[in-house]
Design brief:
Strand order of the largest sheet: 7-6-5-4-8-1-9-10-2-11
CATH topology of the largest domain: Alkaline Phosphatase, subunit A
Number of helices: 12
Largest sheet: 10 strands, mixed
Shape: globular
Structural class: alpha/beta
Number of strands: 16
CATH superfamily of the largest domain: Alkaline Phosphatase, subunit A
């Protein structure tokens, strides 16, 4: 009798625990959207009166808009390496562009632990649709870096209709195999995203999802939905576009991407996942001379603010009150630790980025830190409001010092007025270059 009673109590306890487990709140879904070459002033919530981006504006009004967010690099591949690993891209061996012409056998090492791998280890479904640009060879395919699903391209850009890269290679993949399909690249990326959300609804799948959407827009070639294929397989180069039309084409390219963002948000709402989904929108670097960097100095590939200060929006309706503006200095590499922090996980390896979760939730200031940038012969250090830019060439070193709180356009070089500060920051930048660019291990710092 006592044994039977004991068994009944144990059974009830097991059922109760099982029920509690099922009722535990699901970890948040994550949708990470990255534009390509989108400048600080290229969308309407950042002051653009020509390009209309109502869906991004709504995302910003329901979330947090960043005013001092920086891509880790001022060109494509380095930022993506930093975003995926949480490290300075120099540590991953991807400081420059992985080009279609000269780098078809190199890529992000599989030994690097990516954000997708971190989340997959924590039970997430993972999908990527869009631009990889961290290795052309099948050996560097996103499906080997933590993504369950991948459809898109691995080069720097493709013909938006023909999906042919700059060197004349067909570049549209489904998983680890090339398989072309009809469609405008921007629309395909958004359509795959909608389908993925519908098919991976945590209410049915039983686990959350991570969806990475690195868009091609508004990177060249400049093509609208109605335009023809520009490239041919086997032929390098792109046909010229009439330059006086690029402004209107560029506008449509950004607006079509924004339209896709709207479809994604609507699908999250229809599937009951909107409140419990973190949506992050960023750009991989600043705009080139066809885009709008919001009055900032310089363009893509440069060391000035126009090259790396980009739009960024963070939305998580369940936990973050909308309408906030964040003025903290944040980099691409900070997203990995931040997103992991939101699910209560520490990065599995040593990284350079820091979590900004507490800042987002409670507006706590981030700890003071120096941050660094390097691409080719150009580098800079940010230390609070101060920024020292170093350009090295055969003629020697050109050093400029700016106070960004007073001179965001970087017009007034203050180096001669505060020489001790210039010297101190230069020493820090050169030390970082030795430790990081020349490959000293992160753990030994």
């Amino acid at each position: 009798m006592k044994n039977n009673l004991f068994l009944l109590l144990v059974s009830a306890w097991i059922v109760s625990c099982s029920g509690n487990k099922e009722n535990l709140p699901m970890q948040p879904n994550i949708v990470l959207i990255m534009a390509d070459d989108l400048g600080y002033g290229d969308i309407s919530c950042y002051g653009n009166a020509y390009i209309n981006t109502p869906n991004l504006d709504l995302l910003a009004s329901n979330g947090v808009l960043f005013t001092d967010y920086h891509s880790n690099g001022s060109v494509c591949s380095p930022t993506r390496a930093a975003l995926m690993t949480g490290k300075y891209q120099q540590r991953t061996g991807v400081e420059g562009v992985v080009t279609a012409k000269s780098h078809r056998e190199v890529g992000l090492a599989l030994s690097e632990v990516t954000l997708a791998e971190e989340l997959k280890q924590d039970g997430y479904n993972t999908g990527m649709f869009g631009k990889w640009h961290l290795g052309y060879d099948k050996a560097f395919n996103p499906t080997l870096q933590g993504f369950d699903e991948f459809v898109g391209f691995v080069s720097g850009n493709v013909d938006y209709h023909g999906h042919i890269d700059q060197e004349g290679y067909l570049d549209w993949w489904k998983g680890a195999e090339i398989e072309n399909e009809k469609g405008y690249t921007t629309d395909l990326i958004s359509d795959y995203a909608v389908k993925y959300i519908q098919e991976n609804n945590p209410h049915v799948a039983g686990k959350p999802f991570f969806l990475y959407l690195p868009h091609e827009a508004p990177h060249s070639p400049y093509q609208r939905r109605i335009d023809k294929v520009l490239r041919e397989v086997g032929t390098a180069g792109t046909q010229e576009v009439i330059q006086d039309s690029i402004s209107s084409i560029y506008k449509e390219m950004v607006e079509v991407m924004d339209e896709g963002v709207g479809k994604i948000i609507q699908t999250l709402k229809e599937t009951g996942q909107y409140e419990n989904t973190i949506v992050v929108f960023i750009s991989d670097n600043g705009a080139n001379h066809y885009g709008n960097n919001g009055g900032l100095r310089g363009f893509k590939a440069g060391p000035y603010e126009g090259g790396s200060r980009v739009p960024a929006i963070f939305s998580f309706p369940k936990q973050i009150k909308g309408g906030g503006v964040n003025d903290q200095t944040v980099l691409s590499m900070d997203l990995l630790p931040t997103l992991l922090d939101f699910i209560g996980k520490e990065p599995g390896s040593a990284i350079d980025g820091i979590s900004i979760k507490e800042n987002l939730l409670e507006q706590k200031k981030l700890p003071e830190r120096d941050v660094f940038f390097a691409y080719g012969n150009k580098s800079f250090i940010r230390s609070g409001d101060w920024k020292l830019v170093l350009v090295e060439n055969k003629a020697g070193k050109k050093i400029e010092l700016f106070n960004l709180s007073e001179d965001l356009e970087e017009r007034n070089d203050l180096g001669s007025k505060v020489p001790d500060l210039s010297k101190r920051l230069l020493n820090k930048l050169e030390t970082w270059a030795v430790e990081v660019r020349e490959g000293v291990d992160l753990v030994s710092r």
